């Protein structure tokens, strides 16, 4: 599978983070838009499989097809740049500053949201024949998910918010390993296999992904889900984004960088 050694692919992570920071605004938004749109379609794909087969594990096993496509095409998710771009700053790459990192996050997030919203509108029309018939079974499943993962957490107060944060952190631990997976091989099969495994884990375990939620919850509202925009933002998106940032950076980015780039001196034998 042409596997790269950790010291090689972690250096590629730093290089990738640096290149994303200095990418032109147009390219950042286009790549973010396409990533959000493709991931949204993958969610519809996985939910449809789960509803039609009754098998959640089958839906989770096939969901990574969307993640694989978007990364092979060179598109960017907010959860990925959360991990890669800070490494360029830690590595003291010239011109890499905190304001530039934050600006990159904002542009990628905007692109992701616009792409996810575009597919949400398209799917709302698709599930209702242009809002002329009752919501399809798959659409109902999406709307129900929106309710359970907003007001369902709200019912538990701070405990619900904390749970969202934890599930967001665990999510991007897995998703960021998928981002790294795209770098550890020089062949397409190797990349896909490495990306597939952690993405399947995150989806099956129901962890919270900020970009997936940019699609699920707006679509749920369009289809009559009984929760509000405020519920979605405060009782899902905010703690999920914070958890995605901290989980991906702390559990994947910093651990790999600290032990494979800034390694301790090897013991000298005498």
TrEMBL record:
<keyword id="KW-0812">Transmembrane</keyword>
<keyword id="KW-0472">Membrane</keyword>
<dbReference type="InterPro" id="IPR000292">
    <property type="entry name" value="For/NO2_transpt"/>
</dbReference>
<dbReference type="Pfam" id="PF01226">
    <property type="entry name" value="Form_Nir_trans"/>
</dbReference>
<feature type="transmembrane region" description="Helical">
    <location>
        <begin position="69"/>
        <end position="90"/>
    </location>
</feature>
<protein>
    <submittedName>
        <fullName>Formate/nitrite transporter</fullName>
    </submittedName>
</protein>
<dbReference type="InterPro" id="IPR023271">
    <property type="entry name" value="Aquaporin-like"/>
</dbReference>
<feature type="transmembrane region" description="Helical">
    <location>
        <begin position="110"/>
        <end position="129"/>
    </location>
</feature>
<feature type="transmembrane region" description="Helical">
    <location>
        <begin position="238"/>
        <end position="257"/>
    </location>
</feature>
<dbReference type="GO" id="GO:0005886">
    <property type="term" value="C:plasma membrane"/>
</dbReference>
<feature type="transmembrane region" description="Helical">
    <location>
        <begin position="33"/>
        <end position="63"/>
    </location>
</feature>
<feature type="transmembrane region" description="Helical">
    <location>
        <begin position="196"/>
        <end position="218"/>
    </location>
</feature>
<comment type="similarity">
    <text>Belongs to the FNT transporter (TC 1.A.16) family.</text>
</comment>
<feature type="transmembrane region" description="Helical">
    <location>
        <begin position="164"/>
        <end position="184"/>
    </location>
</feature>
<keyword id="KW-1133">Transmembrane helix</keyword>
<dbReference type="GO" id="GO:0015499">
    <property type="term" value="F:formate transmembrane transporter activity"/>
</dbReference>
């Amino acid at each position: 599978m042409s596997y790269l050694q950790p010291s090689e692919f972690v250096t590629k992570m730093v290089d990738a983070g640096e290149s994303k920071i200095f990418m032109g605004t147009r390219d950042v938004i286009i790549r973010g838009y396409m990533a959000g749109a493709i991931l949204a379609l993958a969610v519809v794909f996985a939910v449809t499989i789960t509803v039609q087969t009754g098998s959640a594990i089958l839906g989770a096993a096939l969901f990574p097809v969307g993640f694989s496509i978007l990364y092979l095409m060179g598109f960017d998710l907010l959860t990925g740049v959360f991990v890669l771009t800070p490494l360029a700053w830690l590595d003291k790459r010239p011109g890499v500053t905190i304001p530039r990192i934050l600006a990159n996050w904002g542009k990628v997030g905007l692109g992701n949201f616009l792409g996810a919203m575009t597919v949400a509108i398209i799917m709302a029309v698709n599930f209702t024949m242009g809002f002329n018939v009752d919501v399809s079974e798959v659409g109902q499943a999406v709307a129900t998910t929106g309710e359970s993962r907003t007001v369902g957490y709200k019912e538990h107060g701070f405990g619900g918010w904390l749970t969202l944060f934890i599930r967001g952190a665990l999510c991007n631990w897995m998703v960021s390993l998928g981002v790294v997976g795209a770098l550890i091989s020089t062949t397409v099969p190797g990349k896909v296999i490495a990306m597939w495994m952690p993405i399947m884990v995150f989806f099956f375990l129901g962890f919270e992904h900020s970009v997936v939620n940019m699609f699920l919850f707006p679509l749920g509202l369009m289809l009559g889900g009984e929760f509000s925009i405020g519920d979605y933002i405060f009782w899902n998106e905010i703690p999920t984004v914070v958890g995605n940032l901290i989980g991906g950076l702390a559990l994947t980015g910093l651990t790999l960088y600290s032990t494979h780039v800034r390694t301790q001196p090897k013991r000298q034998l005498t």
